[in-house]
Amino acid sequence: MPITDYLERNADLYGDEVALVELNPEQQEVGRITWKEYELIQPTKTQAYRRQITWKVFDEKANRLANMLLSRGIKKGNKIGILMMNCLEWLPIYFGILKTGALAVPLNFRYTSDEILYCSNLAELDILFFGPEFISRIENIEPALHKNRALIFVGEQCPSFAEDYRLITGDYSSTRPNIEITDDDFGAIYFSSGTTGFPKAILHRHRSLMHAAAVEQKHHSTSREDCFLCIPPLYHTGAKMHWMGSLVAGSRAVLLRGTKPKYILDAVSTEHCTIVWLLVPWAQDILDALDRGDVKLSDYQLDQWRLMHIGAQPVPKSLIKRWLAYFPKHQYDTNYGLSESIGPGCVHLGVENVEKVGAIGIPGYGWECKIIDENGNIVKQGDVGELCVKGNGVMECYYNNPEATAEVLKDGWLLTGDMGRQDEDGFIYLVDRKKDVIISGGENLYPVEIEDFIMKNDKIKDVAVIGLPDKRQGEIAGAIIEVKEGMTMTEEEVNDFCLQLPRYKRPRKIIFAPVLRNATGKIEKPKLRKMYGEEYLVAYENQD
Q1: Whole-number percent of the chain with pLDDT over 70
Q2: pLDDT tens digit string along 15-25?
Q3: Where do the H-state alpha helices sit in 193-316?
Q4: Confidence check: pLDDT of 141 > 60
Q5: Cβ distance 152 to 135 under 8 Å?
Q6: E strand or H helix that includes residue 469
Q7: Domain range list for the chain
Q8: Which of 62, 332, 367, 375 is the most buried (most CB within 10 A)?
């Protein structure tokens, strides 16, 4: 069963109910043009730009787009790219592509012009939909990009080198196209985060998308009464697959543009959101704003908010302790996943296991997990090894890259590249990325363990531990520390705090600087190693 069936069911059963809301607190509604079939609502007290669509309109717009694409000869096997910020047009375009039998190919909104061209060529895109934020980047590569594919602009004031989405879809039928889609058909290509070079194209079948939707709804018991607040970018499997719990339940979701604490709390309050997925930095920002008194919980209607969950990165215990002090009635969950495993949920903590905060959890619904050594053997309980997962959400392959595929797919198991261990209750704890392990004087140092400890310091907002070159030890641990707003800290303070760690785990270099994270909240350690490793390489080469 393809996920497009859920959209059509919702349009039939709940057609007049709101499916999606778009909120942009930094954009005023005054002077904006209202697009046909989108309902523009009067501003709230926050003066946020707000639009909404019903399930019926959602499905009709997806059908209209699908029929336009079919009229151009698009069929199964074609690939259609989406390069857009979160907005009401995003998901109808995604589902319209799926309804043709073609593959939807979302692109990271942070891609440079070169990366856009690279990924478009790697995925062999036939058409690219893009939004106004990307005009200059597309224009830089337009001759090469346009050579083999159509460019369709989604926004106002269409550039001369593209077609206007509003004009080319308006006259097509809004009835369902007669295209049979099976679980075995290819449905989407997603891209790896690209933190180790140019991204790899990850090919998924429709069964992966369906599996992700079922997992999300099951894990968080999403019901018709829920309202999901979606803040992360929809190009990423994490955000979209979490939203698919709402698709299965037939419940409303809000797409919020902006991550400031006030924006998030305003959205939860005015839209009556019940489920919110945050990244660690956003949760920290909310807590810090509450600590400083910049926002006050009494100013918002938050009683309906039942679940806060975090994914995409390890979660410090201290963060959740602080969170539950402010929000004692909240359920909490964390989800682990990769784009190669169709996003979140192959491992999850579970709302009933809050006492295990620090673990990423147990195998998710419909998933299997194991931890292996370098020879592929399962390690003893408590020992560190590479986490492997197996289930219907595992990718088919890295598209056009059989060598990279063979490295990570073994007999149906996906080798994640994450090092972990399992406790006596079966809960899995991430230790670090395989490539991020620091080998110092023959000892394996796992940066996540050191980061978790350092984050216990109340002055520290964020930390990243990386390996720096050292002639004697090979590598030493360096800590890049971002101090909370309004606070100061010295290297001596950090070193004194770290005396509680075993000597070999203590950072040898302290760097006060911003911690770089990508759009999904993951620390960009290759970039940090490049930035600071080269600086210490000079010292390395000059050591006696």
Answers
A1: 90
A2: 999 999 999 98
A3: 206-220, 237-249, 261-271, 280-292
A4: yes
A5: no
A6: strand 460-470
A7: 443-542
A8: 62
User: What integer is the mean pLDDT of 197-221?
Assistant: 92
Q: Give the number of other Cβ atoms within 10 Å of residue 28's Cβ.
A: 12
Grouping H, G, I as helix, E, B as strand and the rest as coil, residue 420 is strand
Looking up tokens 């006596």 gives: 424
End-to-end CA distance of the chain: give it in Å, rounded: 66
343: closest CA among 387, 312, 307, 309? Answer: 312
Query: CA 37 → CA 89, 158, 170, 450, 455, distances in Å?
Result: 11, 19, 10, 52, 48
Q: Which CATH class is domain 443-542?
A: alpha beta
Crossing angle between the packed helical segments 55-71 and 4-14, to the nearest 10 degrees: 140
pLDDT tens sequence across 339-353? 999 988 899 999 999
Longest dimension (CA), the chain: 76
pTM: 0.83
pLDDT at 313 over 90: no
* Dihedral-angle region of residue 194 (phi above 0 means left; psi in -120 to 50 means alpha; beta otherwise): left
Q: Which of 494, 359, 508, 380 is nearest to 443 (CA)?
A: 508
- The three-point CA angle 432-435-436 to 5° equals 50
Number of helices followed by number of strands (H, E) in the chain? 15, 28
The whole-angstrom separation of Cα 537 and Cα 179 is: 58
| Lowest-pLDDT range of 27-41, 71-85, 197-211, 520-534 | 27-41
